[in-house]
Hints:
Shape: globular
Largest sheet: 5 strands, parallel
Mean pLDDT: 84
Radius of gyration: 26 Å
Structural class: mainly alpha
Strand order of the largest sheet: 2-3-1-4-5
Amino acid sequence: MGDFKISWGVDGNGVVPMTAAPVAEPEIVPVFLAPKRAADLLRKDTAAAGKLAREWLVAHPMDADAAYVLGAALRRQGRCEEAVAVLEPLTISQPQMPLAWRELGGALIGCDRKPDAVEALIRALDLDYCDKEAWYALGDLLNFAQSDGAAAGAVPDRSSFGRIPTGALATKLMADTALREGRREEFEALLFRTLEIAPDFGAARFRFVTMRFADRDVRGILPHIDVLLKFEPENALFRSLKALALFWTREFDAAIVEFESFIGQCSDRPGAWLAYGRALRAARNANAVFAFRKAIEIVPTYSEAHVALVNAKSGDAHVEVIRASLAQPGLPAEDRIRMHFALGKALECSELFPESFANYRRSNMILEARGDSDGANNKFYTRHARAFFTPDFFRARAGFGCPEPDPIFIVGMPRSGTTLVEQILSSHSLVEALGEVTALPETGRRLAPDRPGDPRGGYPYVLGNLDAKRCHQIGQQYLQSTRARRVFGTPFFTDKLPGNFAHVGLIRLALPNARIIDVRRHPLDCCFSCYKHYFPAELSPAQNLTEMGRFYTDYVELMAHFDEVLPGQVYRVPYEDLVQNFEPEVRGLLDHLGLPFEEQCLRFHENSRLVLTMSADQVSTPLYESGIGQWRHYEHWLEPLKRELGPVLDAWPGVPKFSPAIPLAAQTSPERANLTRTGFIGLRQLPFDSASKIRASSEPDQ
């Protein structure tokens, strides 16, 4: 690396010392690339990524995000010793960074330091147990005990492959090739064939388990984990896989027992303690707070554990712990964002509203600084969708689509009450909740490039090119994508992806008998709740109060249009009415869906299903009204939001009269080019204590 030097500010033991007092921060913290942009640049131009990171580090030598990108670029260029020189001190300084651990593992493999690589990859997976790349690399490194009593070790003894039939080795190699090339069904078929030939082929079984696990698909993996444990019953890695699989299948008590069989060995595994705490919390066990604190004790800058502890309402003392963690030099932007949100929530619970708002604002400023907003594209989409979806459009396509009535789409703004409605419906014996299914927005992305030379080839214009056969196929593909998640065999299921409100037209074309429920909350409560929660790279308008108001207005305008062109096709549930007039509203909802009334729908909080959005805590308690009017505590700072909402706020709970849709012929072509970029297409409501993973959390998204 020549004379290039990174200063990490660590003490002689390699650990950043904690300070008791928080350090005042500037209003704007310099921010390197957003994670998605960094990943894209590393994939497309590794040399440019490394150059950009070096230049940034000259001005910001403590920036952990830039150091990670530099180390990752060096590793991809085959300069593994240089990569280790960057990544080893980074993982010491910022041990909560899973990607840094994964890249370090890859660099150590390149340096032929395989035992160290195994440890680094296990540390990466402890923090991010859905990292497919880390699981794959680890599976290539581990040795697996065989039925003849061969010992398991950290690094494989390749001579042990002599005990595996040649046909099994060849079939596993073919399976791995299929996986790398994206042929998932072929990969699994080949692995099953491998295990038929050699049932004791641990590496093949581990590959099957971990690839499904990384996709958050736990169908059928528990028996395979038990086979791995049969040969290595004390293996903490296998036990953690089993504990998490049990957790994801909602067997909380069994998951806790499994965690407790190995958690004592996890003195350097904060992720294991966090997952254990979430299992305890899901089982309503008060020991969850202890587990979250243990995770923070191991890694004081572990932001996910701080958020979990704040959500557990752990008390005022935690405020100072967060402040001390925020004071650490070089804290990655992602951790800083999460911890400011967590601190804002903790201060809100203490009714320290000015300081609370300052922390929410600081988090959103960092988010804004590292990514572009899609506000203009959202407005374009609304304008074009209103012009495109006409009564004549739908009349001409009557009878299109797949006739199955299974899906119940719950749409609306994030933080509007969609999770509460999902919890109520999933308490019914005929309905299963699938959470947020991404199949519809993914279909929109796939369809948009179908006619790249056509100025109207973007979404939703491309829907005009679909014939009856293609619409039926899209509906079937959607239903197929949900089958792995449907475990109870109920006739109906819910898809609670809020942003599907943008895809009402696609739903009607592909699944004409599906039901659509629009949950709507007071604009100020809803918008401010979005502002104070973390939507990593998913809801950029929430980072700015003005844009959040514009986004809510676009949503109301679009749904008003669908009410006009598809009368009676969308059933609206006002959150405030649901909370304040609960039983009649529930009965009306069930009646609309053609479901008989069941008493357990009124006892939704007793439902033991795993809730994966940030509203999990709220829907596990009886209904309450404290989520109504929370914006009033922050009214002093909400003028930009009120101004942008304008007539939508004035008309609440009604809907203002919007100007007529502009005919397609009058729309200028330059605006059409960006329709595929609309933020609506990718909107998800992930928990702000996890940017990307399955997790177990009447304030709504409820």
